[in-house]
Design a protein that fits this description.
The chain has a two-stranded antiparallel sheet. By secondary structure, the chain is mainly alpha-helical. Helices cover about 70% and strands about 0% of the residues. Strand 1 and strand 2 form a beta hairpin. Helix 3 packs antiparallel against helix 4.
Length: about 200
Amino acid sequence: MEKSLTGEMKIIEEPKKTLAMHPKKFAMWLFMASVMMLFASLTSAYIVREAEGNWLYFELPDLFYYTSAIIVVSSITMQWAYFAAKKDDAVKVRLLVGITSVLGVAFLVGQFMAWGDLVRSSVYFVGNPSGSFLYVLTGLHGLHIISAVIFLMVVLNSAAKLRVNSKNMAQMEMCTTYWHFLGGLWIYLFIFFIINR
């Protein structure tokens, strides 16, 4: 409250503080939330369908163990690239984002080869629902990894043009967050498959 020159009391309102978030970051978080709900619903459906019986149990391809290691290593290289960007080390950013991209492609190739192992073990997309669920879940995750590799290429291009630095981190932060999210999602799926196979 404040007194005016005429002696009247006036209420002065404090300016409202708003939490600001980059609109693209906000959109990305909404997208990741929807992806999480999609995979949560699919894994819930998997558990419900498995409980109904007529379920084929099979060994997971060994390649899933290797691709899991690849995705963990790629998260380390991506985080390292993020730290390099904060220190304005453009050469290291390009190198590490490039390595992360290669590891992302290696993950996709490994997953595709794992599908070949499943077919050789007589686990098909059409047939028993256990195989169908596995192909759908790994395939959907693979599609998201493809989108993330494309994002990595965009960041790599920006880094080559020196547009990724400590004063311009939005794109790098978004890419790093998305990559870690997809890595964590794969580890969740992999553990889920081990427990529910």
